[in-house]
Amino acid sequence: MKGSLSGERMVSDLLGFSAWRRLSARRPILTLTAPLLLLCLILVGCTIGPRQLKGNRLSYNVSIQKSNNEELLLNLVRLRYMEIPSFMQVSSVTSSFEYSLALQAEGGWARGDGYVDFPRRFLNPLLKGSYSESPTISFTPLAGEKFVASLLTDVTPQRFWFLHRSGWEIDLLLDLLVRRLGPLQNPTAFEYEKPEYLKEERKFQQFAGLLREFLRRDDFSLVYPDPAEKLPYELAMELRFRNNAEARSFESLLGTELKLSPLPDGRLLGQIFLSTKGGFKRQQEANLEGPLLRIRFRNFVGVLSDLINGVEVPLGEAEQGIVRRAAVPAEEPSTGAVHIIVHCVVAFPEKSLVAIRYRGHCFYIADNDFVSKRTFAFVSTLLALQSGETKSTAPVLTLP
Question: What pTM value is reported for the model?
Answer without folding.
Answer: 0.74
